[in-house]
Amino acid sequence: MKRNDRTNLIKKSEVEHPNSEIKKFLCILMSLFIASLNSGSNGNCYYVGNSDDAVLIDAGISCRETERRMLRLGLSIKKVRAIFVSHEHSDHINGIPVLAKKHQLPVYITPATHSSGGLVIDESLIRPFAVDHRVTIGGLLVTAFSKNHDAADPCSFMVSYNDIRVGVFTDIGIACQNLIDHFSQCHAAFLEANYDDEMLEKGGYPYHLKRRIRGGNGHLSNKQAAELFTNHKAPYLSHLLLAHLSKNNNDPRLVQQLFDACCGDTQIIVASRFVESAVYQIDGTLKTPGATRLKKVEELQNFQTSLF
Q: C-alpha distances in angstroms, 301 versus 1, 144, 298?
């Protein structure tokens, strides 16, 4: 919806509807909406968008499954303007070739990641970018920054709109200063909590794999994620979606309990490796936990229809 159209609709609504409804409508227009479509070593895909534009961070599940899960949430694939790739590991890129081709979505990927990933994508859809650069997608500003992971040119992302910032921080070896600086600005974030230290130590993985996971270029543990959260979260961090949990070396209940004990006013959600999350509205304010959870964006669409 164009700015002039919005202005005219708002003026019309001021006459026809109570102030409380106008405020709700304006809040919708100025918010970001986020969801995890899947999170784990079997595939990662995260949705961030406003009322007009959206991006997918990674697309590690099939095109068909991505479409199904978005449909169940009431999210329109037509609003997705681009896919951003964090690194070349298969659980982050498997769905990209079909998804990008079918929906003609540009794929933002660093040259090193593209070369290492072996993605077969029409060159017309490739958008090379450099880490630490910013990309404008419709009304969204996407910032990429480097991270520690065993990949060619790995990066994390922060998506901004109307001074609201959402971070996507997974596959992180350590909580480096880059991560701390960006996490501390977020109103909401997807944050890796990959493994429980004791479960990894006592588990059946070979030593070299254990060393890779907990090394400086592997994954973030529950404890490391909790330390980052408690020491560096912004006072306005309303939602934290804990992501990329290991199937064998973690337990969603452990993660939920750990973060519930220190969450304060932040709503804690453990993202699933099997199903999509709910859609969460991020409007830059703290509310009672659960107050901004939306089962479907259709609830917003229905509200807008009732206004106009």
A: 13, 31, 5
